[in-house]
Design brief:
- This protein is mainly β.
- It has a 4-stranded antiparallel sheet, with no helix packed on it. The protein has a 4-stranded antiparallel sheet with strand order 4-3-7-8, with no helix packed on it. A two-stranded antiparallel sheet has the order 9-10.
- Strand 5 and strand 6 form a beta hairpin.
- The relative contact order is 0.17.
Length: 171
């Protein structure tokens, strides 16, 4: 007996957007078009993930669908960081309506646009810096997110006003 109409073909991603994977906007969202409708219960943030590559931190996302489940739209909940490498991946837990899972992990590496506006120090505590006790903590709030690996004693210097010598400080 020949059985006709059984779907045993796994879905594939046939198109992803944005097409250009460099200088992606920090407010971008991502569209993934599948070869067939996907079981919506498998389109979760456990199965579609966005990760910052330098830190391996996962980014909170929301996933919506279009075109009867053939398109998944991935929306980061917050702006992405500038000049940063990310990985968008679809696990093999994503399946079509017949239960056929995507073969292997599908992923895209992309980088976000560069920030052309330098950060500024918006708030420094204590606010009167000319008479700071040597044991005081100095807090600097920047106008934007700063990459952790660039905040160090080579980039933030404390100097004596009277002679310009650099003061040892831990950052």
């Amino acid at each position: 007996v020949e059985v006709i109409g059984v779907d045993n073909i796994p879905p594939t991603v046939i198109l992803s957007w944005p097409l250009e994977l460099t200088d992606v906007s920090t407010s971008a969202y991502f569209k993934l078009e599948f070869s067939e409708p996907i079981d919506l219960s498998t389109l979760t943030s456990d199965n579609i993930k966005l990760k910052e590559q330098d830190t391996n931190n996962y980014i909170d996302i929301e996933i919506t669908t279009q075109n009867y489940g053939t398109v998944a739209v991935v929306h980061p909940k917050d702006l992405l960081a500038t000049d940063t490498n990310y990985l968008l991946e679809i696990t093999d837990e994503v399946a079509d309506k017949a239960g056929n899972q995507i073969t292997g992990i599908v992923s895209w590496e992309f980088s976000t646009e560069k920030d052309l506006i330098p950060p500024t120090a918006e708030l420094i505590v204590p606010s009167i810096l000319n008479k700071v006790d040597i044991s005081s903590n100095i807090i600097i709030n920047f106008s934007e997110r700063i990459k952790q690996n660039v905040i160090n004693a080579q980039n933030i210097l404390f100097t004596k006003v009277n002679d310009g010598t650099v003061v040892d400080a831990s950052i």
